[in-house]
């Protein structure tokens, strides 16, 4: 059995046995959202992919610090060094403070992440909260001779860097081609070479989000925050850096260059990239205008949707593909995921109905081994789920009495399914948990209401009113009816 976790490292382009830099601690840094709009299906994929990584490493016993940033400054339109700040543009359009935009969409992002049952990161730093640290990093890169000041802005000197190190080692791009292929853009005359990128930008007079610096009143370049905040919270050598494949170039390539220019080495041991969500083969994105927000996906309110899909259906849909494979959205694929998710959940319920006997015909150890092998093979969730479905057939045979299981194996099987489905895949029972809460609350209310009826019969109005008022304060509206009472939760 493959007991060691293997991770595909985008940098070495092969699977490597996972060995933490500083066991038992593991540091993970994942590029989070730029918060100027609602999260869409494309955001759900990295969030769920790295939630799986976070959950599994914790399950293996590591002490994991998971840092996922919020980009709230410096990310310019078209991901270039020119144009408007995405947050500021939205703030001007909505006549709001940039930080109101940031707070509003951060809150909504958190709500969506909670719906998808992703665990909150250990630290969620904001770029705007780390301006001083980013300026210090710019100074360090300047001091090391890998950046230059040009009219109040600071640019990374790709050519100087590439003489000593290797710019393009992550994405496989060649500097010569980058220099030749990058077309001249407005404002690029400030740069020595088109491939150079901004570490600090001088703000134009109308630019709102600005801070003082030794070079100008301005703001940090987009790539800088991740080099800076990962180092601050995880050190200059840490384990895993994750993000979407679309961030590989230029964002992560630039991060490697910045960290190497500052510290003399790349900070990251394993680079992990999730593949994209596509619609009819085309990448989904806000700028592409073909995105489906998570709220729309859950409610069904988007013309491309036949129906709404629950958060756990969406989570299951994402986990059914390996994180490095492309995933194409379609109603049929989501409907299939809905059925698959429900079947898996039904098997967990069925497990509780099975009675252990003395005989055993089920190879639980064999099934477990296959499941862990899949997880250890670069988090291969589609293979894992296929094994879990093999197990579902066995569970159904046990329920039907066609197979037999003893107590020890039944306990093992229950633990295996519980650990994999809930703790590692991060699925949760949706409709059942809601109706179960409702059921329990109903029983408690019956009890409370019978006390109220007794009080009324004794003409103890104080108690009866107190019960009514306190239920109301708790958000439970009770109406007396002919046959007893009705209740509902206040919206
Ligand atoms: Zn980043």
Structural topology:
Elements: E1 6-9, E2 14-17, E3 25-30, H1 41-59, E4 63-68, H2 86-94, H3 98-115, H4 131-143, E5 147-150, E6 153-156, H5 158-164, H6 175-181, E7 197-202, E8 218-220, H7 224-234, E9 238-244, H8 248-263, E10 268-274, E11 277-279, E12 282-283, H9 294-299, H10 311-319, E13 327-329, H11 331-353, H12 364-376, H13 381-400, H14 407-424, H15 431-457, H16 461-473, E14 476-481, E15 484-489
Bound molecules: zinc ion (ZN).
Written description of the protein model:
It is a single chain. By secondary structure, the protein is of the alpha/beta class. The longest helix is centred in the C-terminal third of the chain and has 27 residues, at 431-457. It is 47% helix and 14% strand. The chain has a 4-stranded parallel β-sheet, sandwiched between helices. Strands 5-6-7-8 form a 4-stranded antiparallel β-sheet. It has helices at 41-59, 86-94, 98-115, 131-143, 158-164, 175-181, 224-234, 248-263, 294-299, 311-319, 331-353, 364-376, 381-400, 407-424, 431-457, 461-473; strands at 6-9, 14-17, 25-30, 63-68, 147-150, 153-156, 197-202, 218-220, 238-244, 268-274, 277-279, 282-283, 327-329, 476-481, 484-489. The model has no long low-confidence stretch (mean pLDDT 92). Residues 31, 226, 251 line the site of zinc ion. Zinc ion binds next to loops.
């Amino acid at each position: 059995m493959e007991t060691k976790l293997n991770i595909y490292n985008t940098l070495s382009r092969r699977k490597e046995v996972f060995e933490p830099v500083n066991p038992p601690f593991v540091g993970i840094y994942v590029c989070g959202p730029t918060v100027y709009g609602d999260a869409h299906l494309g955001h759900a994929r990295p969030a769920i992919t790295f939630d799986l990584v976070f959950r599994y490493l914790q399950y293996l016993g590591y002490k994991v610090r998971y840092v996922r940033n919020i980009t709230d400054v410096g990310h310019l339109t078209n991901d270039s060094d020119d144009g408007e700040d995405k947050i500021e543009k939205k703030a001007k359009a909505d006549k709001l403070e940039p930080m109101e935009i940031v707070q509003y969409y951060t809150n909504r992002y958190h709500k969506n992440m909670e719906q998808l049952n992703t665990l909150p990161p250990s630290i969620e730093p904001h770029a705007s909260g780390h301006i001083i640290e980013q300026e210090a990093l710019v100074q360090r890169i300047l001091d090391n001779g890998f950046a230059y000041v040009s009219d109040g802005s600071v640019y990374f000197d790709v050519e100087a860097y590439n003489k000593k190190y290797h710019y393009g080692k992550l994405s496989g791009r060649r500097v010569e081609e980058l220099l030749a292929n990058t077309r001249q853009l407005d404002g690029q005359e400030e740069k020595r070479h088109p491939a150079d990128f901004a570490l600090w930008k001088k703000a134009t007079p109308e630019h709102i989000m600005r801070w003082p610096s030794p070079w100008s009143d301005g703001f940090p370049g987009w790539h800088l925050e991740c080099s800076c905040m990962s180092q601050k919270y995880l050190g200059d050598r840490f384990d895993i850096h994750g993000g979407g494949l679309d961030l590989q170039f230029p964002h992560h390539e630039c991060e490697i260059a910045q960290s190497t220019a500052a510290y003399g080495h790349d900070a990251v041991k394993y680079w992990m990239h999730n593949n994209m969500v596509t619609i009819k083969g085309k990448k989904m994105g806000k700028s592409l205008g073909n995105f489906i927000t998570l709220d729309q996906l859950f409610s069904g309110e988007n013309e491309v949707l036949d129906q709404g899909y629950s958060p756990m259906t969406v989570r299951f849909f994402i986990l059914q593909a390996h994180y490095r494979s492309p995933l194409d959205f379609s109603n049929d694929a989501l409907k299939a995921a809905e059925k698959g998710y429900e079947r898996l959940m039904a098997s967990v319920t069925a497990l509780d109905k099975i009675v252990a006997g003395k005989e055993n015909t089920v190879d639980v150890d064999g099934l477990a081994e296959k499941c862990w092998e899949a997880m250890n093979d670069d988090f291969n969730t589609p293979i894992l789920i296929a094994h879990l479905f093999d197990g579902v057939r066995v569970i159904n045979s046990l329920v039907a009495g066609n197979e037999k299981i003893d107590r020890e194996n039944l306990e093992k099987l229950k633990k295996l399914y519980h650990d994999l489905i809930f703790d590692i895949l991060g699925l949760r029972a949706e409709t059942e948990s809601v109706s179960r809460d409702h059921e329990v609350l109903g029983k408690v209310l019956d009890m409370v209401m019978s006390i109220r009826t007794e009080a009324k019969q004794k003409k103890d109005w104080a108690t009866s009113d107190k019960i009514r008022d306190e239920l109301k304060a708790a958000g439970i509206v009770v109406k007396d009816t002919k046959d007893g009472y009705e209740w509902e939760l206040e919206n």
